[in-house]
Amino acid sequence: RAIEEGAGWSGGTGAGGATLYEGDVFAKRPELANRFDVVYDKDSFGALPLEMRPKLCERLSEVVRDGGTVYVEVKNKEIGRDVGPPFHVEREDLMEPTAFGTWFEHRASLGEVYPLKGPGMKQMGHILRRVMRP
To answer: Which of 46, 59, 123, 132 has the most CB atoms in a 10 Å sphere around its CB?
Structure first.
């Protein structure tokens, strides 16, 4: 189904359903505060330049419930690590205090989650957990 800009779409029945949102991830959305148990970030962190990442992480921290999960997929590159997008991202990059480190703890590095067609890049998965708010 097509999702209209800024609108939500709910799928599934009862427990285990999913809600998809499309819109400006940098816009503050108080109505979504503490609403989600899980957020899937497919390459957006690694697509952003360093100066834009803190706002993304802050917004995700606002919508994920305490104890909730963010599953992040990023690229690891053999060459051109500082050139992007996509940029090369390591666990340490995700957990910088200016990134997810202020609001999340790193639970697991999943390693390569599936092969990519292009040479010299790997698709890596990380599981982060939202720390409890004071």
So the answer is: 46
DSSP 131: P
Backbone φ, ψ for residue 77 (5° rounding): -115, 140
Residue 22's nearest CA partner among 5, 46, 45 is: 5
Using CA atoms, how far apart are residues 15 and 130, in angstroms rounded to an integer?
21
What whole-number distance in Å separates Cα of residue 6 and Cα of residue 16? 23
Alpha carbon distances (Å) from 100 to 41, 72, 78: 12, 11, 24
Output the six-digit token pair for 8: 């939500």
Strand partners, 124: 74, 112
pLDDT tens, position by position, 73-106? 999 999 999 899 999 999 999 999 999 999 999 9
Longest alpha-carbon distance in the chain: 46
SS3 58: helix
Q: What is the pLDDT of residues 113-126, one digit of tens each?
A: 999 998 899 999 99
Q: What are residue 122's DSSP bridge partners? A: 76
